[in-house]
Amino acid sequence: MKTKLATLMLSLAIFGSAHADVKTLEQNLKTNYPDLPVKGVYQSPVQGIYEVYTSGRIVYTNQDAKYFFVGNLVDIKQQKNMTEERIAELGKIDVKSLPLNQAIKYVKGKGERTLYVFSDPDCPYCQRLEQNMVGVDNVTVYVFLYPLTSLHPNAEKVSNQIWCSKNPAEAWTNYMLNRKLPTNSKSCSSPIQKNIALGQKLNIDGTPTLFLQDGQRLSGVPSDAKQIEALLQTAK
């Protein structure tokens, strides 16, 4: 009984110490790097080293926050890239909380699988994604128009024209595949600014950003339709 009590007390002491170290690190980060957008601080598998999650990436440091390690933490024995796994875990979202009324919806085939995409109409990588989607079937896609005007100054105007067209899904596809804007667009209330605020809240800093139906985040363009199919299957 005494042994169990001693073990419990030791565990609580270690937990309390680790918690205190995280708090110290958080304070040091705020003091030393007030402009660093820190989203979370966590104990890493290495004693005395902590994960700092910022802008969709992980860097490592100790509680002093004076020096940083930038790169991948790898478990050689298990053949695992632990940094990539943690980024994937921390980047997940609850897709049920997404406001689907702010997205363009299109369905291919039975639409049994689901894909959520934050996309800029003037982003060439987003255009390539839509080209790859031509070869994908049985999926429901929700496109959140997310213009990055710092890179594509006309993208917000284009986004509004697409949203306000008679058939936004058709207008989206026609623009992304054929570069043809809808001619029947009228002024309307669009969710573009709400999407921009939502994307910032979700730490989306590039397009396209995709979310699978299990909440997994994917940044960038899958190489082809086969890779998209494989990703959709893993999240089914």
From TrEMBL:
Keyword rRNA-binding annotated: no
GO cellular component: periplasmic space
InterPro entries: DiS-bond_Isoase_DsbC/G, DiS-bond_isomerase_DsbC/G_N, DiS-bond_isomerase_DsbC/G_N_sf, Thiol:disulfide_interchange, Thioredoxin-like_fold, Thioredoxin-like_sf
Domain Disulphide bond isomerase DsbC/G N-terminal: 17-84
Lineage top rank: taxon: Bacteria
Signal peptide segment: 1-20
The keyword Transcription is annotated on this UniProt entry: no
Biological role stated in the UniProt entry: Required for disulfide bond formation in some periplasmic proteins. Acts by transferring its disulfide bond to other proteins and is reduced in the process.
Listed name of the protein: Thiol:disulfide interchange protein
Name of encoding gene: dsbC
